[in-house]
Design a protein that fits this description.
mainly alpha; about 140 residues
Length: about 140
């Protein structure tokens, strides 16, 4: 619940106070620099620097892939919010994210999915269709 509250506050502030003041790339550069600063402060105040600095090359590659995909996802999400007339509709992508993670987990990692959950996936896809197709 707290996560949703923080995300909503950030999106509303962006949409109604910053959307017209910055082009997307400049906003995202500032946003990324602030996140990097927060990450640096957390690193400097973390008591377990050796574990972080001692990460294997394989782990660093995976972390880099995760960070890159999150970075690109953030950029696309902020850009969608900027272009969306009705704030909140851009979050349809988050529903798709949940569904894709569920489906990928099922097919590649043999995660168990009940029939009830599959019915929920189908209903969610139908709901997304109803929201997107506004005719």
């Amino acid at each position: 619940m707290m996560s949703a509250l923080f995300f909503v506050c950030g999106q509303v502030l962006f949409k109604y106070f910053l959307n017209e003041k910055f082009d997307m790339m400049n906003f995202f550069i500032i946003y990324s620099l602030i996140l990097g600063t927060i990450g640096t402060v957390l690193f400097l105040h973390n008591g377990n620097k050796q574990k972080i600095l001692g990460a294997s090359k394989k782990d660093l590659v995976v972390i880099t892939l995760v960070a890159t995909t999150y970075f690109l996802g953030d950029y696309c999400g902020w850009n969608a919010l900027r272009k969306c007339d009705a704030p909140g509709l851009n979050k349809i992508s988050m529903i798709l994210e949940i569904l894709l993670v569920l489906i990928i987990s099922y097919y590649f990692f043999n995660t168990k999915i009940s029939q009830r959950q599959m019915v929920g996936v189908v209903l969610a896809l139908f709901a997304i269709y109803l929201i997107i197709v506004d005719k």
